[in-house]
Amino acid sequence: MSDSPRNADLHCHSTASDGFLPPIEVVRRAHANGVDLLALTDHDTLSGLDEAEAEAQRLEMGFVPGVEVSVTFARETVHIVGLGVDRQNATLVAGLAGLRAGRDERARRMGKALEEAGLPGVYEGACAMAQNPEMVGRAHFARYIVSTGRMPDVSTVFRHYLGKGKPGYVEHEWAKLEDAVGWIRSAGGIAVVAHPARYGLDMHGLDHLFDRFVECGGEGVEVVSGSHSRDEVARYAELALKRNLLASRASDFHGVSESRMDLGQCPPLPSGLVPVWARL
Predict the structure, then answer these.
(1) Half-sphere exposure of 207 (CA within 13 A, CB side)
(2) pTM confidence score
(3) How confident is the model at residue 5 (pLDDT cuts 50, 70, 90)?
(4) Coil, helix or strand at residue 207
(5) What is the spatial distance between Cα 264 and Cα 237, in angstroms, rounded to a whole number?
(6) Class in CATH terms, 8-96+173-279
């Protein structure tokens, strides 16, 4: 694909994981917002890709099959986006299946912890909120708690109950970085570090993350993200140049009420970078 400027949005979510809209509606919203290249990247699942790709083809919009893989690195949860993956690849499919099994076990532990904190029935409520029963996560817990009137919004729930160190937070071991990148590469995809400014890693920790990421075959970084400030965009543009990484542009859209940026509304990549879509 061309490396010329385009409205590419290469990280977003649907009801296949923790987004608000079904895959077909994500595609339609992206198209209406002027996106000409979209990647659906649900957490640890490929289940929404067929529906999304069919609608993108109907609308004659470029589509990239993707996934966001949950990784534990230095006791932090890090997300690695896979772009251009073969959804039939046995290695990737098996790896993601293992992560989804772990998600269910974590959700049950979260429900128990919240019950002990005085919030009974939250696990059942979160399950009812999730469209995909394999993908119950913190967002579903937060949305259910908001629906009961106990908290005004999702961000408040995270601050009080679901953030690290709070009563409902449960430590969990996700994939190893090397495994996640390996699964993506096995499936013919490009591995990209998602929203790097969001992690609780200092500069030394981030250097270590990117050292390991590049060593095991990672190729890209989200320079522009819905959660990045202007200064953070500049910082990760410099990192991409320094480490010869492909640059990605992504909203990380989940839904209008919970996302800082709508589909297709990201600022353009800074000049001088090699966009990841030049390799897709």
Answers:
(1) 4
(2) 0.90
(3) low
(4) helix
(5) 19
(6) alpha beta
Q: What is the DSSP string of 19-59?
A: -SS-HHHHHHHHHHTT-SEEEE--BT--TTHHHHHHHHHHT
Q: What percent of the chain has pLDDT over 70?
A: 98
Q: Are 235 and 270 in contact (CB under 8 A)?
A: no
Report pLDDT digits (tens) over 181-209: 999 999 999 999 999 999 989 999 999 99
For 233, phi then psi, to 5°, come to -60, -45
- The CATH class, in words, for 101-162 is mainly alpha
What are the structure tokens assigned to 179, written together? 């495994």
d(CA 275, CA 280): 10
Write the DSSP symbol of residue 159.
Answer: I
Identity of the amino acid at 92: L
C-alpha span between 208 and 86 (Å, rounded): 29
Strand ranges of the sheet holding 8-9, from the earlier edge strand across to the other edge: 8-9, 37-40, 62-73, 76-83, 190-193, 220-225, 246-250
Q: Residue ranges of the domains in the chain?
A: 8-96+173-279, 101-162
Task: Give residue 183's identity as a one-letter amino acid code.
Answer: W
